[in-house]
Amino acid sequence: MNGPRSRTLMFRGQAALLVTLGSVLAACGSTTTTEKSSPGGTLIVGMESEADILDPPRTGSWVTTRVFHQIFEGLVDEDLSKPSSEVPIPPLKPMLAESWTVSPDAKTYTFKIRPGVKFHDGTEMNAAAAEFNIRRMWDKKFEFYDVKAAGNSGYVWQHLVSIETPDPMTLVLKMKQPFSAFLRLLTQGGYKAIISPAAIQKYGNDGVADHPFGTGPFTYVGRQRGQHITLVRNEGYWGTKAKLAKVIFRPLPDTSARVAALRAGEVDMIAVPSPDSIASLKAAGFKVSEGAPPHLWFLNLNLHDGPTKNLKVREAINLAINRQGMASELLKDTVTPAQSILPPGNSAAVIDPDAYGYDPEKAKKLLAEAGYADGFSTTITTSVSGSGQILPVQMAEYIQQDLAKVGITAKIDATEWIAYLTKWSKGLPPGTSMAQMSWGMSSPYWLYILNSSTLQAPNGANISKYSNSKLDALMQRAATAKDDQTADELWKQAVKLAQADRVVVPVVNDKSPYAMSSKVTGFVSPSEEWYDLAPVSIGS
């Protein structure tokens, strides 16, 4: 077996093959009528916020994933070709691995790499390239090990003990224990994206985000922060080529501005149209597509400071929020009331209307029993916009009013999205009882990511610093089950246990509406927070 050092030398040789895309950078500006009528056309997408850097393992927002999903591919992917109404949980499909096998003891995964695939810089995708990317996130001794990428993806590789490449097109990953969620996790987040090792060699861990060479149906040609990220069709794509010639993502954080841009024809499609605009957009001939992605808009409660350390207070907060009212009155049924801490599109969700119903009188009684008959004051943190955030400030204000009805006075602290992600990841500070987030996965393993005592902030997503040894043990059993049926039953038991502690307050599940011109065809809203643009086309 060749070691990572010898592969490093090989990739340095390949780096000389990097192609220059400067000739197309000029195309990143405004879209003309001629461009619109060119073969395939140009699709302009209005995003709900600015995207993060385009180094997938280093970032974590859905708005960024929707961009890099068009550029990068992983070993395994989800089939996003069908809408949520037809396929509630997307099946796995081969991607850069044309096939894979799992050993009888569920500890060894063997991937056969798809032959003939090239990165956008012209270098070859093979088993060594896959190994390079994994070592960047996993192997502390590797020359290009990246601490931030490792921090974001540690739970994916936590059981990996060795990597072998017995031939150029075979990758063997050996685990110390069975890991039932592994294949599904390979389709989630930035760690699913395989980057050209030659690009990392040439530009370094800090520079590759400006040179994001993947293998996907679209290639990156440039970005201007606050203005656009521009992609063009990959003419050398290994699979079915994209129909669109170009895609331009425009950050438009203001909801009204997005809707106005769509009406004016400045963009062809927008994420998160304002709920009160949807009926009029439909009446004006625009199309609206909705789905049931694994999305949860929720609150984390503070377990190490203030009143929310008390279970009865946490129960009261859950009962004080009128989820149905928010869904129908504020959000015009673009969401559904959440009644589980696992979102839709998840095989282990456990619906509990008693825990997450609306009962302000019972909430007052619980507060009195907890010693807060006169209520208390606290802070809710949220963002001003962002990926999957819907209308975060207005929704926080709705919750603020509901809490006031039971005696809880809540101040709202709102921050810009990318800055908020950093703030949220550090955990809940003293005086802040609630921190809002929107997230979710199609894998039940998300429960572990959010609640494991081993993943407490600032080193993990458990920002409540929740610790339950029984829950940890049950989640470990679920994670090491050898078959999906056994794993799902154990995950459901774990969900019930976590829901009994009321640490996470599920509020709503987003239908993830997209409004678009009638000229846009082929767009599918799958049971996922991102989508494929390769099958999309736009008329003249």
Distance between the termini: 54 Å
What assembly state would you assign to the polypeptide chains in this entry? single chain
The overall average pLDDT, rounded, is 91
The CATH superfamily label of the largest domain reads: Periplasmic binding protein-like II
Structural class by secondary-structure content: alpha+beta
Number of domains: 2
Q: How is the largest sheet built, in terms of strand order?
A: 8-9-10-1-11-19-12
Largest sheet report: 7 strands, mixed
Number of strands: 21
**CATH 2nd-level architecture of the largest domain:** 3-Layer(aba) Sandwich
* Name of the top-level CATH class of the largest domain: Alpha Beta
Cα Rg: 23 Å
Low-confidence residue ranges: 1-38
The share of residues in extended strands comes to 15-25%
| Secondary structure: helix percent | 25-40%
In DSSP terms, counting alpha (H) and pi (I) runs of 4 or more, how many helices? 18
Shape: globular
CATH topology of the largest domain: D-Maltodextrin-Binding Protein, domain 2
Keywords:
D-Maltodextrin-Binding Protein, domain 2, 6-stranded mixed β-sheet, Dipeptide-binding Protein, domain 3, disordered N terminus, single chain, 2 domains, alpha+beta, 540 residues
